[in-house]
């Protein structure tokens, strides 16, 4: 994708776009964090059950996957909040403009968010399939 240089007045539009996207990501990441906590509560109860070897292996794999996603969710929450903090500081400066460095950092956050979102979506379905298998 080609990066187009924008005039200074357009920089405020980019800033608004990045800020809006960050706010949406933070909201969704908080939701994912709550969902993972809910799933992990269920997983803790399941470890007390006498599961077959196959279900134990599935349980371990799912638990590890959720743990990795929890760690990445926390890291993304921190990184996005930090970007918002820096935007706030930089926006107070005269002649503030979002440059290539901002674009690359924000694009990297977007890639990480999309990856986590996709992975969590798969984990969520795996969790419900796993729970259905256990309850049958």
Provide a short characterization of the protein structure.
The protein has 136 residues and is an all-alpha fold.
- N-to-C CA distance: 49 Å
Helix content: over 70%
| Cα-atom radius of gyration | 20 Å
Mean pLDDT: 87
Number of helices: 3
Strand content: under 5%
Q: How would you characterize the largest beta sheet?
A: none
Order of helices and strands: HHH
Runs in which pLDDT lies below 50 for 5 or more consecutive residues are none
| Global outline | elongated
* SS elements, strand count: 0
Structural class: mainly alpha
Short key terms for the protein model shown above:
136 residues, mainly alpha
Descriptive report:
The structure is a single chain. The chain has 136 residues and is an all-alpha fold. The protein contains three helices and no strands. The chain is elongated.
Topology overview:
Elements: H1 8-46, H2 53-91, H3 100-135
């Amino acid at each position: 994708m080609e990066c187009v240089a924008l005039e200074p007045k357009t920089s405020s539009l980019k800033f608004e776009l990045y800020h809006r996207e960050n706010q949406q990501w933070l909201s969704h990441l908080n939701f994912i964090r709550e969902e993972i906590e809910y799933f992990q509560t269920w997983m803790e109860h399941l470890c007390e059950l006498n599961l077959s070897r196959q279900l134990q292996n599935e349980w371990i794999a799912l638990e590890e996957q959720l743990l990795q996603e929890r760690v990445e969710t926390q890291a993304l929450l921190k990184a996005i909040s930090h970007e918002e903090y820096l935007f706030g500081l930089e926006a107070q400066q005269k002649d503030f403009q979002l440059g290539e460095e901002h674009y690359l950092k924000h694009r990297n956050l977007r890639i990480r968010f999309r990856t986590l979102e996709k992975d969590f979506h798969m984990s969520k379905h795996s969790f419900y399939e796993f729970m259905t298998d256990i309850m049958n």
